[in-house]
Amino acid sequence: MNDPNPPSYPKLPRNTVQRYKARGTYDYQTIHKIINTTPLLHVSFNTPSPDDPFPAILPMIGFMGSFTNPSASLSEPLDLYLHGYISSRLMRLSDLGTKNKKGEEENEEEEQGLPLTISATHLDGLVLALTPNAHSYNYRSAILHGYATPVLNNEEKLWAMERLTNSVIPDRWKQTRVPPTKAEMMSTQILRVRVVDASAKVRAGEPHDDRKDMGDEEVRRRVWTGVVPTWVQYGEPKGAGGNLVDGVPEYIAEFVRRGNEGGRRDAEEAMRKH
After folding, report:
1. How many other C-beta atoms can be found within 10 angstroms of the C-beta atom of residue 179?
2. What confidence tens digit (pLDDT) does each residue in 100-112 have?
3. Which parts of the chain are coiled coil (predicted)?
4. d(Cα 190, Cα 91) in Å, to the nearest integer?
């Protein structure tokens, strides 16, 4: 049975879903699952230059997790970890954005960091209706707001690097040349984002046509309606020019099989939901 009151992020004006409110959700499980199953996240941040009014946005790899509680489930509070190069603009700004701010009531110093907005989206289908205005997508999307600070503890940094690598293909970390060299550790930066609020929005099912259009038999006989299921399709792995391993390792082949089967299953399930 689904929990009627699952652990959730606070519902604030900033993260409240305004259009099609019934599609919005704020629970940890839904949001964290979307983040951890999306290959690329998009990270937006403001630049400090007065001559540049536009916020920057970058595609990045990341995951939700807890270093202090590694066994925490997706339904518990988690941090977002992001991977980047030490000298990139975002990483340099995160150093500048870390500041001490005194609490107004308890007079304690609280670490803030660089404000970020992070988005993730799965496209599950093209929804084709009788009229252009009723066309849509089946999708699962999430938006997070939080403060980013650099991970300075080497143990936490290695933990995050392993999790990030395994988020690409499970068990990949231990199948590579590890641990990273000192130069690799120095050139890599990990950001920990303390999430302050988030929301998800999910659309599933068939087209929702107006009653008037559904009553027009001539239009319904002329215009095809339905859903084109959509998912990430992994192709056949090809070895690199310098590869000396015979055949494709089973853990990679299994990832491709399961990824393709799971993506198709999710897209087809989304078509049947209402």
Report:
1. 12
2. 443 444 433 345 8
3. none
4. 8
Question: For residue 195, how many other CB atoms are within 10 A of its CB?
Answer: 21
Residue 5 lies in a domain: no
Residue matched to tokens 């500041």: 99
pTM of the model: 0.91
Q: Which residues contact 5 (CB under 8 A, 6 or more apart)?
A: none
Q: Are 121 and 111 in contact (CB under 8 A)?
A: no
**CATH code for the domain of 146:** 2.30.110.10
Please give, one letter per residue, the 3-state secondary structure of 31-42. Answer: HHHHHHCCCCEE
> Taking a C-beta distance cutoff of 8 angstroms, is the pair 25, 200 a contact?
yes
Residue that is written with structure tokens 């339904």 in the block: 75
CA neighbor of 250 nearest in space, from 170, 166, 167, 161: 170
Q: Please report whether residue 194 resides in a domain.
A: yes
For residue 7, being part of any structural domain is answered with no
| Cα distance between the two ends of the chain | 18
Q: What is the pLDDT of residues 158-211, one digit of tens each?
A: 999 999 999 999 999 999 999 999 999 999 999 999 999 999 999 999 999 999
Instruction: Collapse the DSSP code of 138 into the 3-class scheme (helix H, G, I; strand E, B; otherwise coil) and give the result.
Output: strand
Nearest to 28, CA basis, from 59, 60, 72: 72
